[in-house]
Amino acid sequence: MVSAESIPVYFGTYKGGSPASKGIYRSKLDLKTGRLSEAVLAAEATSPSFIEIHPNGKFLYAVSRSGSAGAVIAFAIEFNTGVLRFLNQQPSGGAGPCHLSIDHTGRNLFVANYSGGNASVIPISADGRLGEPTGFVQHEGCSVNQKRQKGPYAHSINVSPDNRFVFVADLGIDKIMIYKLDIGKGTIVANSPPFAKVKPGAGPRHFSFHPSGKFAYVINELDSTMTAFIYDSFSGVLTECQTIMTLPNSFEGSNTCAEVRVHPNGKFLYGSNRGYDSIVVYQIDMPEGELTFVEHETEDIKTPRNFNIDPTGKFCLVANQDGDSVVVFRIDQNSGKLEPTGHKINIGKPVCVRFSLP
Question: Which among 77, 127, 155, 276 is least surrounded, fewest beta carbons within 10 Å?
């Protein structure tokens, strides 16, 4: 299933698109050329918009929205074929699940429920099945954007590199909530201090740690900015050191940001713009972790809700939600710039990209 020449890739989707999406799709990325094999259906599911693969590479988990209820679905990855075999599902603990992650031991799954403004912890058994939720937190409050911030909207959930803290970026209250994690019990409780703030109206969405564990970055959906934090791994505290625009100064249209990723080598940071359809590239300046703008890549990009960088750091795969495609860029290892490869595949409304490793 995995070789030195290629790596399996899975794609979460929204219902609809052309061709019409039916669930989770799989492909293989050629690590020499950047070519993707034709996408095939790995498992049927209702709008599995965000997916995550277990650290052992044997299981895949997906959020699913069905009416007002939210669920997390567990699948086993068939080693020889890559097909996903349904295991079970559990309630996500709130409405509109939109993001999930797994602790580094593979014992707990964390899910952010956007519409519910809350987050849950769900235990993972040795066979990959999900247990009943063991942890839950409800956010409160609002912020200055009357259309988008009338209440809490938990948009992503990430665990610290050392498995001690969990961070929930809440778009509705302009805070990254910080929780202490008890891995054994599967619970999260408020840290002290309990959150880090961003500028009112920023709308923090997705969050990414630097490989060194010394810095973290949040992309702010509503005001099209990227915020860099210094991270104290002992206390869990995030201290803002910089906020920088994701757009060119000349852009005057409507834009919302989506995904953020640090390159595996720790030298570059990437973020996605929807409106000014592009991937913004920054250089990460050491030792402070601050950002310097490099470029905007726009070639064949349309509503990039999600993108990901393969584990070797050679290629960036951009999921075009409204382009019904996934397009591949080669990453210049010296500058961080994205170079079009000419390779892309058709998938209806792709919104999440994940690589599978054994």
Answer: 127
